[in-house]
């Protein structure tokens, strides 16, 4: 007869395997804590980093370590998605337009490709005039917008100047998907890529600001949060599922044997 301690251990093992398979873990790939330094982010490592990466400025100006940028530019970190995962990018940008800032100027963050010449990657932009756009591909010219919102609600309130956004790229299905949420869920959208158009060539994630180099028409922007997480699918691996099944069968046989002996 099996001892009580053996049965307890077997039950605990089954529970542990089941919990491991069911839990959706998340790993922080990058996170940036901004400080008071006016030095550029370029050449520095993010606060949390899993691979020794450093910030680059592939176009124009660089964001500063305090999160500030005034003229057109990009700060980027290397990243390439792989199939079978979820990647969640989140961040906060505060726009501070002046009276001389053209309304079309904007700032944003997202999965970076070859912006500003073209992009095949999800991103979010907020313009000075209050236009919030979730881009699926191809910004700034001829791209696909997953959704566009007038955050002024037809002029009944001031344009949204604070972009608090989360976007999740799901590479598990055959046709990848991306979901967007901004302003604490007030603005949201979902997009499914057409067959053959998954953005597999993404080389990074970015913060950006789009204006020009004229001091009178710069767009002051301050980033206060930036993070990229990788999610682990909440589905047991084949070996994990087999171990769980064997454990359940074992407990069932033990229960049956105890009933017969009784």
Layout of secondary structure:
Elements: H1 4-22, E1 26-32, E2 48-49, E3 56-60, E4 68-69, E5 73-78, E6 86-95, E7 106-112, E8 123-127, E9 131-137, E10 144-150, E11 162-170, E12 177-182, E13 187-192, E14 204-210, E15 221-231, H2 238-261
Antiparallel strand pairs: 1-2, 1-15, 3-5, 4-15, 5-14, 6-11, 6-15, 7-8, 7-14, 8-9, 9-10, 11-12, 12-13
Structure in words:
The protein is α+β, with helices and mostly antiparallel strands and 262 residues long. Strand 8 and strand 9 form a beta hairpin. Helices cover 16% and strands 37% of the residues. Strands 1, 2, 4, 6, 11, 12, 13 and 15 form an 8-stranded antiparallel β-sheet that branches. The chain has a 7-stranded antiparallel β-sheet with strand order 3-5-14-7-8-9-10, with no helix packed on it. It contains 2 helices and 15 strands.
The proportion of residues in beta strands is: 35-45%
Order of helices and strands: HEEEEEEEEEEEEEEEH
Structural class per helix/strand content? alpha+beta
Low-confidence stretches: 13-23, 240-257
Q: Which oligomeric form is depicted?
A: single chain
Count of helix runs: 2
The whole-number mean of residue pLDDT values reads 82
Q: Characterize the main sheet.
A: 8 strands, antiparallel
Helix content: 10-25%
> How many distinct beta strands?
15
Please give the radius of gyration in angstroms. Answer: 24 Å
What shape does the CA trace take?
globular
Distance between the termini: 12 Å
